[in-house]
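Continuing from yesterday's entry. The apo prediction looked reasonable, so today I'm repeating it with NAI included to see how the binding region is handled. Same sequence as before; SMILES copied from the compound registry.
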Amino acid sequence: MKKHVVLYKKLSAPLMARLHEAAQVTLIETLDPTGLAQLRDALPGAHGLLGASLRLDATLLDMAPQLEAVASVSVGVDNYDIDYLTQRGILLSNTPDVLTETTADTGFALILATARRVVELANMVRAGNWNQNIGPLHFGSDVHGKTLGIIGMGRIGEALAQRGHFGFGMPVIYHSHSPKPAVEQRFGAQYRSLPDLLQQADFVCLTLPLTAQTQGLIGAKEFALMGPETIFINISRGKVVDEAALVEALQQRTIRAAGLDVFEREPLNHDSPLLRLNNVVATPHIGSATHETREAMAKCAVDNLLAALAGERPINLVNTGAWKR
Ligand SMILES: NC(=O)C1=CN([C@@H]2O[C@H](COP(=O)(O)OP(=O)(O)OC[C@H]3O[C@@H](n4cnc5c(N)ncnc54)[C@H](O)[C@@H]3O)[C@@H](O)[C@H]2O)C=CC1
Ligand SMILES: O=C(O)C(=O)CO
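Holo prediction written out below.
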């Protein structure tokens, strides 16, 4: 008998066809209240789950006693109770690598947009307020040659370093769990303690995962170490930052600007003070959001899920402790 897979993300026709061939499929189209009720109804019979952007905690997982595998369509796995999944022997997989370059492109888009004030000034033109040649009031700051600071030198951090070093001639400094000699050799990057990086970087970029150790890593104390010309970029997770402290630093202009793809709460509240600051460029969590990359992520997740349900070890197994065969 075919295993039962519950999708809470719609996939392309070829991927849906692959899943239908291998499994009995229930598709939850959107995670609105109706969709969530459908999900709860489907969980008791589910052997596999595939989706993203849903907090899968013990309460939901307890509704799925037959569950064998969860395939996340994301590299970040902060939405999952990994210890509980492992305890239950449920295999969790993610989609690293295929989104690395695209997410680094997003990071660089935010670097350029904040430094050159692209959104603010484009809005000025659109509003019909470009009435004379611009002067210093509208100038931005250079990106090339400035110091790029990367916190979390993993896959995406390295792809950002590559762009900064080769594309923009930027000296790269980084903070991570430990120094990475290969990265230092390739990009001339230099390791720094977190306080040193915050003091020395012109662009402070977050590319680390949200974990118990990184939650609230950047708060008032850390913003105080940055200078008035520092530009802060977050393409990791909103909860790594104390958002109230960020707002304060931006309002008081103790830092210059922020480029933010992720927020403490998503979607961002329409009345967030961040949206009233013209030194903020806010994007709706678009790090990996291109047609090509989202399809590659979905394929990767389907590969992982079908392997797990066939009794094979998924390539991108996250909780290796759950693999008992
Ligand atoms: N904005 C978006 O749409 C996207 C956001 N992301 C986020 O980016 C994160 C990173 O992705 P990858 O580069 O693929 O992961 P990765 O695992 O390759 O890199 C993360 C790096 O952070 C370092 N790190 C972790 N905890 C640390 C700590 N406490 N102190 C210092 N360094 C620490 C690790 O050593 C590693 O080098 C994901 O977990 C996800 O949250 C990923 C893709 C898209
Ligand atoms: O993959 C992730 O972790 C994302 O945030 C979206 O691509």
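Comparison notes:
- The mean pLDDT is 97.
- The CA atoms of residues 113 and 240 lie 22 Å apart.
Will overlay with the apo model tomorrow.
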